[in-house]
Amino acid sequence: MQAFLDFLIAHGDVGMFIAAFLAGTVFPFASEAVLLGLLAAGADGVSLLLWGTAGNVLGGLFNYWIGSLGKEEWIERYAKVKPEKLHSGLEKVRRWGPLAGFLGWVPVLGSVLTVSLGFLRCNLPLSLLFLAIGKFLRYAVIVVAYGAR
To answer: N or C end of the chain, less CB within 10 A?
Structure first.
């Protein structure tokens, strides 16, 4: 895993995009390690913020697409979302609608919510808007906190 992290860090913005995409999907990956490694290497925080947000939102869009297939057995098999977690996510999305995308950055819960948004075929532009805002703010907090040290 360390070799993969080193590879991503060595590739700057592209590495950040890839790390953020993976972290935004149902695959367990922490893009924050790459972000911090790149910041420590002197990379531009604004550029990392933009590339990270773009990759993470596309990862969430991938989850939305998996959910939109509408087959619980596929969601469990390919997205590794257990039925009880999916149903919990569906309840939240039914209550909040596309606004639930704002919490798409939260580990584990975010994947469940983005899959649930797709499963319920929530308004895609609104879902992506709230997803992008949440993911942008998460990376922004990290970049600002790193700069303040």
So the answer is: C
List Cβ neighbours of 5 (8 Å cut-off, separation of 6 or more).
33, 34, 37
The pLDDT of residue 85? 87
User: Smallest Cα–Cα separation from 116: which of 145, 143, 79?
Assistant: 79
Which ranges of the chain have pLDDT less than 50? Answer: none
Q: Which residues of 135-145 are buried (b: 16+ CB within 10 A; e: fewer)?
A: bbebbeebbee
Q: In the structure encoding, which two tokens stand for residue 122, read together? A: 């929530």
Q: Report d(CA 127, CA 31) in Å as an integer.
A: 22
Please report the pLDDT score of residue 148 as a whole number: 67
> For residue 131, which of 93, 98, 89, 97 has the smallest C-alpha distance?
98
Whole-model pTM over 0.85: yes
